[in-house]
Amino acid sequence: MTLYLRNAQPTDAGKLGAILHRFEVDTPWMPKTHCEAEAIAFCGTMIDRGWVTVALTDRVVGFLARDGGQICSLYVHPDMQGQGIGKALLDNAKSTEGELMLWTFQANEGAQRFYLREGFVEKRRTEGDNDEGLPDILYRWTIAQELQMKEALAQEDDA
């Protein structure tokens, strides 16, 4: 599989909205509060702001939206998860920012494992101070943290 990353184009909004909406529909603990048209419009707004990077193979398979160092969305098509697409999108964001922050829902244990594996550190939790009313977690990554972690691992390997 060859993966390409590029800036999103307005014509990507429908594909990205479908990925986002499918997450809501397929996730049992997620409140069903948005229709697909709203998800498409939301993605269109993020694209118009210049926040979105898309991942493509022979089709759009995921996206990351960020406002500077604040990651607003990271979604991968469910059929394509576990293939390094989310990591590629995240690594691309890391390559341009020294610090990244994001929120994930406490119920999203897969996302928590992913972000911890990618060097993010939990900063705080809320009991649902978000549109969905779900408890969530704020994570932070810095290049300094990542360099310290790599140095510690290299020292372990040398021991």
From TrEMBL:
Concerning Pfam families, the annotation shows: Acetyltransf_7 (PF13508)
Alphabetical keyword list? Acyltransferase, Transferase
Q: Which InterPro entries match?
A: Acyl_CoA_acyltransferase (IPR016181), GNAT_dom (IPR000182), YpeA/RimI_acetyltransf (IPR050680)
- GO molecular function per UniProt: acyltransferase activity, transferring groups other than amino-acyl groups
Top-level taxonomic group = Bacteria
* Listed EC numbers: 2.3.1.-
N-acetyltransferase domain mapped to chain residues: 3-144
Asked if the Swiss-Prot or TrEMBL record annotates the protein with the keyword NAD, the reply is no
Matching PANTHER family, A to Z?
A: ACETYLTRANSFERASE, SPERMINE_SPERMIDINE ACETYLTRANSFERASE
Give the protein name, as stated in the record: Putative N-acetyltransferase YjaB
